[in-house]
Amino acid sequence: MSLDPQKSLQVIEEMILQTRTNFQENGHLYLIWGYSIAVIALLHAAIQWFTDFPYHFMVWWLCIIPGIIYSVMIRKRSSSQNVSSYITKTMKWLWFSVLAFLIFSLVLGAVAFNYRIVYPFIIMIIGFGSLVSGGILSYRPLITGGLIGFSIGVLSAFFSNEIQLILLAFAITSAYTIPGHMLKANPLDHA
Fold first, then answer.
1. Does 171 reside within a domain?
2. Which of 12, 59, 106, 162 has the fewest CB atoms within 10 Å, measured from its CB?
3. How far, CA to CA in Å, does 148 sit from each of 143, 159, 176?
4. In 3D, which of 182, 176, 117 has the Cα closest to residue 149?
5. Does residue 52 fall inside a structural domain?
């Protein structure tokens, strides 16, 4: 059975709509990461500014908590889904790649003992992930948030580590938290 061009477009649109609906149901995942990273970044900046604690960066170990929550929620969600679309698989591999680049950036910072060069990359990677997700889903809030996050990442290279942490909090809010709230409200309003 072959599909005419109109039917093919309809099938693709239905796949995108289903993926966007799934993403609406997962909007809370953007919120978990958005709020967690923003709070941890601001906490890190505050510890660095107001204390002499030499291991201020250890606050990032708190990411384990939202990581566990995220893993449990994803595992529960994927066990209830019977079918995985091409777009869903693409999104899964995109975010796996973003995570791999984030880990690589953190390792690079630890080896070089210079997180000032790492935070701009982290911010750009976060923006990139949201930008590509928004493009795949044709979802403007993620595209806009991704562009803002990526731009902040580029600009952050010219600031001190403490300012970069504040810029990270702003970038993650733009790229994850705001689109996450909009996704939870209604993903189709901003296509």
1. yes
2. 12
3. 9, 17, 11
4. 176
5. yes
Which residue's structure tokens are 């698989």? Answer: 89
CB contact at 8 A, 70 and 99: no
Please indicate, yes or no, if residue 2 is contained in any of the structural domains: no
Question: Tens digits of per-residue pLDDT, 177-186?
Answer: 999 888 877 7
> Using CA atoms, how far apart are residues 140 and 190, in angstroms rounded to an integer?
6
Q: Where are the alpha helices (DSSP H) in the chain?
A: 5-25, 27-50, 64-80, 86-112, 119-137, 140-156, 161-172, 178-185
Query: Which CA distances in Å does 54 have to 5, 107, 115, 135, 166?
Result: 62, 18, 14, 41, 19
Q: Which of 185, 190, 153 is nearest to 30 (CA)?
A: 185
Q: In this structure, what is the dihedral angle of CA atoms 163, 154, 90, 180, given to the nearest 10 degrees? A: 40
Would residue 130 count as lying in a domain?
yes
Q: How far apart are CA 137 and CA 74, in angstroms?
A: 19
Mind listing the pLDDT tens digit for each residue in 154-183? 999 999 988 999 999 999 999 999 998 888
Cα Rg, the chain, nearest whole Å: 18
Rounded CA separation 3/9 (Å)? 9
Q: Which domain holds residue 33?
A: 11-190
User: 74-77, long-range: CB within 8 Å, 24+ apart, which pairs?
Assistant: 74/29, 77/25, 77/26
Number of domains in the chain: 1
